[in-house]
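Exercise 7. Predict the structure of Guanidinium exporter from Methylobacterium currus.
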Amino acid sequence: MAWIYLVTAGVLEVVWAYAMKQSHGFTRLWPTAIMAVTMAGSFGLLALAMRSLPLGTAYTIWTGVGAVGAFIVGIMVLGEEASLTRLAAAGLIVSGLVLMKLASAS
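Solution. The predicted structure, encoded as tokens:
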């Protein structure tokens, strides 16, 4: 169950990061509200996952899912650049996440 909490927390991290971008510096009400709610949910689920997963594993997976997810949303929704270098960097993050999961005993 901890892994489900952790991946969901990572997905919520992507949502709050996107909402933060859409809030235009917290000047728009609904994106700011969505950001606050999903941020709280993300932190809460991360805390639940950390009950049984090691700190280093949980935090690395959480930030990695959020980083790669935000990268994908940036490209697909916001039209950000998808250069070979940026794609390679995202690939390295994903490979690090896979290795971290494989190294985890839980």
